[in-house]
Amino acid sequence: MVDLMIKNGLVLTMNKERLIIKDGCVAVEEGKIVDLGKTKEIEGKYKADEVINASEKIVAPGLINTHTHLSMTLFRGLIDDKKPKDWLPTVWKIESNLTREEVYCGALLGALELIKSGTTTFSDHYFFMEEVAKAVRESGLRACLAQALLELMGPDLGQNKLSYTVDFAKKFRGAAGGRVETFLGPHALYSVTEETLKKIREVADKENFRIHLHMAESKWEIEMVKEKYGKTTVEKLNEMGFLKPDVVGAHSIFVSENEIKILAEKRVNVAYCPTTPIKAGVGVAPIPEMLQEGVNVSLGTDGAGSNNTLDLFRELRMAAVIHKLRKLNPETLPAFQVLEMATVNGAKTLGMEKGIGSLEKGKKADVIIVDFKKPHVTPFHNIPSTLVYSTVGGDVDTVIVDGKVVMRERKVLTLKEEEIIDKANACFKELVEKAGMETKLM
Ligand SMILES: [Zn+2]
């Protein structure tokens, strides 16, 4: 007897051999994959409580978004087409009035969008993270949550103390039935003191927490860090002994050849978020160069306040195409390599490669089922090409996290979609009014 059986699907395992099973079947029990293979071989072995027919659908590992700010989904479309030096202070101005209710409201909206576009695990960095943890618990998603710490700039919400970040990490580790993992979240080298960063490194070593921070994301940052420390971001972090395999460095755009070597040597994980810096006219991280050196690169959307979407499928496409232009070579970063970033590499970034990232016996049942009987993905013959270049989040039909169906045939079962959207619109209006800003359509 198993809880759930997904049969007749085209199963993209992302296992070591990157096996694709035609007419495949995945059997799930107590949140884990207990068997997978050809439907005709698996089907007869078990009785299932629930059977999902995935005929003419791709069955794939749930996507992993390794850098976002879920509650900032409330800021979508508010500050577009602005330079980072204008964008960031405006965001901080809005955030200085932020309430915990708004953080919760934004997190629910973001959770809804993640589910509806096929992300099953996300790594988040923000304030009032207890509220995000609550949204994770209710939505059924899996998450790595970090309470952000900013000391030298940014909004003051009374949470900018190291103890706040560490206490959150300790208290919420393993919450939501084990679906919440917690990281330490210093905002960046330029916004936190050297002394505090050293303390964070000590806590991470002692308590076995991973560290999620922004790294080398703008020229402005590099200049500021150089002026203060006489070194670039990666050089300085390295000199401090901060860089280890437990570090997740979001963006990492402004890194030299030598710094890429440092990232590889220290086995730092890079959360590559292509759209935000492209949209902001900032730059493109040297991803093919990092992969060449053996750096683990995963994918992220960043917040919808800058990217305007949490749909990781759009990010897959952007991640793949931009380097072909940058290198003037279409052979750069093929589709399959990008697919790895959103699955197996993402799991590695989060230190969860034993549990998620691929569909294998014994792994957690985080599965998405993607419809390929649609005009924009026809003719269907090449899974990586379809998923990276043609699919959009709206093609995801069914989402399973930890063996539980959280969306079936586009209907989210864990959250009240209409209610959340209405509430988010009301919340947005209030936020904008509090900040004394105007929007075009209101
Ligand atoms: Zn960010």
Describe the structure.
This protein is α/β, with parallel strands linked by helices and 442 residues long. The chain has two domains: 118 residues, Urease, subunit C, domain 1 (Roll), CATH 2.30.40; 287 residues, Metal-dependent hydrolases (TIM Barrel), CATH 3.20.20.140. Helix content is 38%, strand content 24%. It contains 17 helices and 17 strands. The strands form three sheets. Strands 1, 2, 3, 4, 5, 14, 15, 16 and 17 form a nine-stranded mixed beta sheet that branches. Helix 3 crosses helix 17 and helix 14 packs across helix 16. The longest helix has 18 residues. The N and C termini lie far apart (55 Å). The mean pLDDT is 96. It binds zinc ion. Zinc ion binds next to loops.
Write the layout of secondary structure elements.
Elements lengths: L1 E11 L7 E10 L2 E7 H4 L5 E6 L3 E5 L1 E6 L15 H12 L4 H17 L2 E8 L2 H11 L2 E8 L12 H11 L7 E7 L7 H14 L3 E5 L3 H11 L3 H7 L7 E5 L5 H9 L3 E4 L2 H5 L7 H7 L2 E4 L4 H4 L4 H15 L8 H7 L2 H6 L17 E5 L11 H8 L5 E6 L2 E5 L2 E2 L4 H18 L8
Helix pairs in contact: 3-4, 3-17, 13-16, 14-16
The protein binds zinc ion.
The site of zinc ion has 5 residues, from loops.
